[in-house]
Amino acid sequence: MTLKTQPQYGFEDYLAAERAGRDVKHEYVNGEVFAMTGASFNHNLIVLNLGSELRARLKGRPCHVLPSDMRVRIESANAAKYPDLTALCEAPRFHDDRHDVLLNPALIVEVLSASTEAYDRGGKFATYRRLPSLEEYVLVSQDQPLVEVFSRQSDGRWVLSETEGLDADVVLASLGCRVAMREIYDKVDFEQGNDRGD
After folding, report:
1. What pLDDT, on a 0 to 100 scale, did the predictor assign at position 3?
2. What does the pLDDT read at residue 27?
3. Fewer beta carbons within 10 angstroms: which end of the chain, N or C?
4. Does residue 191 have a pLDDT over 70?
5. Of the candidates 86, 44, 92, which has an alpha carbon nearest to the alpha carbon of residue 65?
6. How many domains does the chain have?
7. Cβ proximity of 105 and 94 under 8 Å
8. Which domain holds residue 31?
9. What is the separation of C-alpha 6 from the centre of its chain, rounded to a whole number of angstroms?
10. Does some domain include residue 54?
11. What pLDDT score does 4 carry?
């Protein structure tokens, strides 16, 4: 099955095609399917750095940190996304017995790029906010040491906390840990500038 033959898909049709595919990942939004592009060197460094730091801090606890191959289903928005990182500290719940579509992330991380920043801040965040389990949404800049953490409050509001500079720590309350900015940006060359892809 190819995704280019139909303009609209039911979620199960999308999922069957995505599982059969090997080369390109696609996001699903209310019947429409969008191909995802590759990522820059800095983007990949940041994702690996942050994922490694989170894994080290959560070791021995009932928490999971998952890379960008874990699909997240937002049922109330009829959508599926591939966040750069996903984490949770409770038993994972899945769409079905294939265990490749997560339903209950507590934390989602997106690394910003020039081509996706507006969507990551706008439409994508609006979709993620419909996940009842989501406690924090984290945006990580690749062209300066800046991390923004949006935290869901008990009354449903989202509050922004910014961490800037390499000597600071990012606090992630949903996971009960903090991560040094210096570790998130280890070996990142800000002179390379922002990438054009995801």
Report:
1. 41
2. 79
3. N
4. yes
5. 86
6. 2
7. no
8. 1-35
9. 27
10. yes
11. 43
Give the model's pLDDT for residue 1: 31
Examine residue 103 and state whether it is found in any structural domain, yes or no: yes
Give the C-alpha separation, 89 to 160, whole Å.
22
Same-domain check for residues 12 and 56: no
- Give a yes or no: residue 75 inside a domain: yes
Residues 24 and 115 occupy one common structural domain: no
Q: Which residues contact 173 (CB under 8 A, 6 or more apart)?
A: 135, 136, 151
Residues 63 and 135 in one domain: yes
What mean pLDDT do residues 67-96 have?
Answer: 96
At 196 the pLDDT is 47
Within its chain, how far is the Cα of 94 from the centroid?
17
89 burial via Cβ count (<10 Å: 0-12, 13-18, 19+): middle
Q: Which stretch of 85-94, 103-112, 160-169, 189-198 has the lowest confidence by average pLDDT? A: 189-198
Residues 51 and 1 in one domain: no
**Within a domain: 198:** no
Q: Do 62 and 26 share a structural domain?
A: no
The strand pair at 107-111 and 101-102 is best described as unpaired
Say if CB 198 and CB 112 are below 8 A apart: no
**Same structural domain for residues 43 and 31?**
no
* Res 7: pLDDT: 60
Q: Rounded to two decimals, what is the model's pTM?
A: 0.85
